Amino acid sequence: MSANDPRLAVTTSSVRGVVDMTHGAGGCAMAELIRDIFQRHLANEFLAQGNDAALLGTVCGRLVMATDAHVISPLFFPGGDIGALAVHGTINDVAMMGARPLWLSASFILEQGFPLAELERIVVSMAFAAREAGVPVVTGDTKVVEKGKGDGVFISTTGVGVLADGTYVSGSNARPGDAILVSGTMGDHGVAILSKREHLDFETEITSDSQPLHDLVAAMLAAIPGILVLRDPTRGGLSATLNEIAQQSKVGMVIREAAVPVKPEVAAACELLGLDPLNVANEGKLIAICTAEDAETLLAAIRAHPKGRDAAIIGEVVADQHALVRMKTRLGGMRVVDWIAGEQLPRIC
Amino acid sequence: MKYVDEYRDQELAKTIAGAIATEADPEKSYHFMEFCGGHTHAIFRYGVQDLMPENVHFVHGPGCPVCVLPISRLDDAVELAERHGVILCTYGDMMRVPGTKHRSLIRAKADGADVRMVYSTLDALKIARENPERQVVFFAIGFETTTPPTAVAIKTAQAQGFKNFSVFCNHVLTPGAISHILESPEVRELGIVKIDGFLGPSHVSSVIGSQPYEFFAEEFQKPVVIAGFEPLDVMQSVLMLIRQVNEDRHEVENEYTRVVTEEGNLKAQALVSEVFELRKTFDWRGLGTVPYSALRIRDAYADFDAEKRFELSVKASRELKSCECPSILRGVKKPTDCKLFGTVCTPQNPIGSCMVSSEGACAAYWAYGRFRELKPLEAAE
Question: What NCBIfam families does the record tag this protein with (chain B) (predicted)?
Fold first, then answer.
């Protein structure tokens, strides 16, 4: 958060103290918590209805729905926090279907003893992220668990979006000859989290790339309505996501190491820690696959958007019954790009 | 990235590959053992094999510290974490290595043991400082490279009067292991393993220097080229080895001059010999019992020796019969010779240690090189 970030302009309430079991018991403490923190900051016409469920408008078109739980540690990290991430993560899952996200729901699992001031900071950030993206949180829920049975706060969000006629984006659409693009640098989020993580003193200026991508997707679809595959390379990074698509589409892929954008500071941090930037998570980047003919037009459209300036064509889809993702190394050799085994970094989203 | 990109440059790689292709005698075949897992990793990660002529072969050595640790020592670490209720600090690679009955540190952690991954010995000391009521044990593994930091931790713990910190020492030594391989019947008598020269350790040599290799270059008449871990280092060193073989020389040459000197890091050597002494023997996975090949903590620092502080039940190592890790670590077999490779044993579900660490030969084959082993599309259809 920079000094002129609008989130700092929001006056926080006089909420003091910590979460206790009464905040989840259905009594007046819970009503106060909802009023003073959730309704106050997330305020919109749907929440104002005050019912157990939100009454939404009529929608024309096919609906898309996605859900995502967020358990990240630490809760606050360079370039974001769990609140903003919970909004961006679900918006992006909806957007990766080519859909326009409309509404979000949010449920909070709070641990007894969690400072209310920190909860408010998270909700303020969430409200800002939702407003900035134009996707309101229309309904929510709060539960409290005993101390030791949670880790401060977990947030689960669900998103609903609408798909324009004719759009059919799916991980099973890749065919040999298609082009593979990424919208920007790989590995920023994971390395930012690592720099803040407990037990690891690693100072770095790298910030998370956590951001909503639905506006970028809309610009891309306007340029090339026939985009075949969209996916955000979150956990497991580019490697895991390309392998997922390869298996879903039953194809192989060949990418070029020299073409994959990685910030020098991320590359350096990974070098030092023995990580592969291709395996490190992103929260504000996407992979797109389109036909070879559409590739240059799509690349130009992504690069024209502020969230896609570092976009690149990184490789192509090939026929391969083993569905292997391979990479032409910078050195001139070839290697497999594998899924990571086990966990590379704990709890990064 | 400065100081890194220069050593991965494609144009330079082409030039060296051209020189290798020109100088490698087509009538000969060249078998070079890269001792270190770091070299194995670099060869596969950058696809160095693709730039070599067909008669230049890499034989993968035992220099992956995670891979050579015998199961019994891993079982001891699991026991420390489970039975003695300590906070066990370990480098990340050790977490997933399966011990007896597939028990691993990560499983022990899932069952409630306090196992923590650290990046440095000083992180373990920090955990000890923050938990004065708990016993903290650092699970020390590795070759000469990781030994000095362990010595620093022990000396710091003594200077600052730590009562709750100790080290479970499993540090091993490179020269003893190389001699052991060269003396093995597979190399000396049976000729099953052909070794024409060694890519000498990189980081290890920065500590011990190039001098310790003079003995076996002379004794076993094998050339040694100390090689850095970057792909161009490996390629340049292969070229230097080919030249030695062609000229029938067997010398210790140093390609990694930007880091390695003849005498090594004297300060680190002094620190290590102050804190550690030689063990008469030590069990290596794959190599068996190797004399004078490992270190233990000197009596002067006995207070920080976990083997003295905690009573550990003595167990014999029990290898899984069908797992070929022991032969792979000696260079006798390749990962693809193992029946378990890629079938029941994968990085997701490792059976042997060579599949766990990214420096292990099996993991490198699987993660980076398995496309070479698969049948081409046309043939399989």
Answer: hypD
Same domain, yes or no, for B159 and B183?
yes
Q: How far apart are CA A13 and CA B253, in angstroms?
A: 71
- Which helix (H) or strand (E) segment holds residue A214: the answer is helix A214-223
Please tell me the distance from the alpha carbon of residue B239 to that of residue B155, in angstroms, as a whole number.
43
CATH number (3.20.20.70, 3.90.650.10, 3.40.50.300, 3.10.20.30) of A179-336 reads 3.90.650.10
* Chain A residues whose beta carbon lies within 8 Å of the beta carbon of residue B350: 341
Look at chain B and report how many structural domains it folds into: 2
Give the span between the Cα atoms of A258 and A330, in whole angstroms: 5
CATH number assigned to the domain comprising residue B210: 3.40.50.11740
Q: Are residues B246 and B346 in the same domain?
A: no
The pLDDT score that the predictor gives to residue B4 is 83
Q: Most B CBs within 10 Å: which of A331, A334, A339, as the mutation test of the B interface? A: A331
Chain A residues 326-345 with a CB less than 8 Å from chain B? 326, 329-336, 338-339, 341-342
B266 and B360 within one domain: no
Q: What is the pLDDT of residues A168-215, one digit of tens each?
A: 999 999 999 999 999 999 999 999 888 777 445 555 578 999 999 999
Neighbours of B271 (CB within 10 A): 19
Report the residue count for chain A. Answer: 349
The amino acid that residue B105 corresponds to is L
| Residue A30, token pair as written in the block | 């819970």
- Cβ(B369)–Cβ(A317) under 8 Å? no
- Residues B202, B248, single domain; the answer is yes
The pLDDT confidence band at residue A19, using thresholds 50, 70 and 90, is very high
Please state the three-class secondary structure of chain B as a single string.
Answer: CCCCHHHHCHHHHHHHHHHHHHHCCCCCCEEEEEEEHHHHHHHHHCCHHHHCCCCEEEEEEEECHHHHCCHHHHHHHHHHHHHCCCEEEECHHHHHCCCHHHCCHHHHHHCCCEEEECCCHHHHHHHHHHCCCCCEEEEEEECCCCHHHHHHHHHHHHHCCCCCEEEEEEEECHHHHHHHHHHCHHHHCCCCCCCCEEEECCHHHHHHCCHHHHHHHHHCCCCEEECCCCHHHHHHHHHHHHHHHHCCCCCEEECCCCCCCCCCCHHHHHHHHHHEEECCEEEECCCEEEECCEEEECHHHHHHEHHHHCCCCCCCCCCCCCCCHHHHHCCCCCHHHCCCECCCEECCECCCHHHCCCCCHHHHHHHHHHHHCCCCHHHHC
Binary contact (B381, A336; C-beta < 8 A): no
Structural domain of B293: 1-322
Question: Cα–Cα distance between B156 and B167 in angstroms, integer?
Answer: 12
Rounded to whole angstroms, the Cα distance separating B293 from B295 reads 7
CA distance A142 to chain B (A): 28
Helices A82-95, A116-133: inter-axial angle, 10-degree rounding: 30
Query: Of A126, A91, A130, nearest to A108 (Cα)?
Result: A126
pTM reported for the whole predicted model = 0.87
Q: In this predicted model, what pLDDT tens digit does every residue of B42-74 receive, in sequence order?
A: 999 999 999 999 999 999 988 888 888 988 999
Contact B4 A271 (CB under 8 A): yes
Please tell me the distance in Å from A168's CA to the nearest CA on chain B: 29
Instruction: Look up the ipTM and state it.
Output: 0.81
Q: CATH number of the domain at A6-163, please?
A: 3.30.1330.10
Q: Is B235 found in the same domain as B108? A: yes
Q: Which residues make up the CATH 3.30.1330.10 domain(s) of chain A?
A: 6-163
Closest Cβ–Cβ partner in A322, A331, A342 for B374: A322
Tokens of B366: 């699987």
Task: Please tell me the distance in Å from A146's CA to the nearest CA on chain B.
Answer: 19
Contact B50 A332 (CB under 8 A): yes
